[in-house]
Amino acid sequence: MSFKSLDTNEVVLQHITITNADTSYSTLDYLGNKSRVFHMKHRIFHGKSENYYSDASVSSTGNYYNDDKHGNWTYYYRSGKLSKEGKYNYGNYVGQWKEYYENGNLKELTEYDNEGELNGENSTYYNDGALSYKTNYTDGERHGETFYYSPSGSLQQIRHFENGVLIGYSHENTNKELINMIPIKNESGKLISYYSNGSISKKMTLENGLIQGNYLEYYEDGTLFERIEFKDGKYNGLKERFYPNANKQIVSPYYYSEIHGVYKSYYENGKINKEITYLYGTKHGESRYYDNKGELTKTEHYYNGTLIKTE
After folding, report:
1. Burial of residue 70 (number of CB atoms within 10 Å: 0-12, 13-18, 19+)
2. Which domain-ending residue is among 52, 76, 100?
3. Over 60: is that where the pLDDT of 196 sits?
4. 24 or 163: whose pLDDT is higher?
5. CB neighbours (10 Å) of residue 215?
6. Does residue 221 sit in helix, strand or coil?
7. Residue 210 placed within a domain
8. pLDDT band, residue 22 (cuts 50/70/90)
9. Would you say residue 213 lies in a domain?
């Protein structure tokens, strides 16, 4: 048995084929490509589930138990490279979760307790594998010291938390010794920290624990590394990243922490690398890819996150 669901313009959103009632199902996207194979029991998700990109490559695999993700799940890039892996316990993240860059390097490492709360060390990494950030959580709240590092591994800043509340920050002095914690009242104020060579590492403004306005981060020689526009603690505006030679690396527009508009990345020589159009966090429209000479090599067309054509 099969049936289709349509949008208001009678465009097919999905085509569902039931191969064994209340047991095995498969869905097709509106182009007729397989999008999902899953199992249900008494009309709820139960059993193995596989999801696919529009080119038939696997996007994720795992299991459901009574409508909740349960057990080990694995997520993939369209290229087939591992994107994320970890374990669910009745819908909650548990244990250690790992997220990867497409080049295979670790991007983020997160620890959860059996109730799905953050508990333990959380660390993030730059694309080349260098440590960017590490912190600790207790019962879902940051507690203790949070360390931030530059792409070359230099300490930029330490933020001090007490049961989820930011109470102060510190950095190294020119003797590479940690200064005493600079207290922060009501999680509000301007934070300016320094490298051990005396140059500014980070600048930001906090209001009640939320970053407001421009967040600035620098290389050790004073060259701007990253500028992000924040509103109420969320990306809102442009996120820009720069190479050590001051050429742009990334320009990404955000609307309340969702990529919205045209994301652009560049080669270190200044030539365009990618132009990807997003609609509230989802690829929608044209994505263009270029070689390091700036010549167009590929164009992809997306509709609500589904790849519909490649040129």
Report:
1. buried
2. 76
3. yes
4. 163
5. 18
6. coil
7. no
8. low
9. no
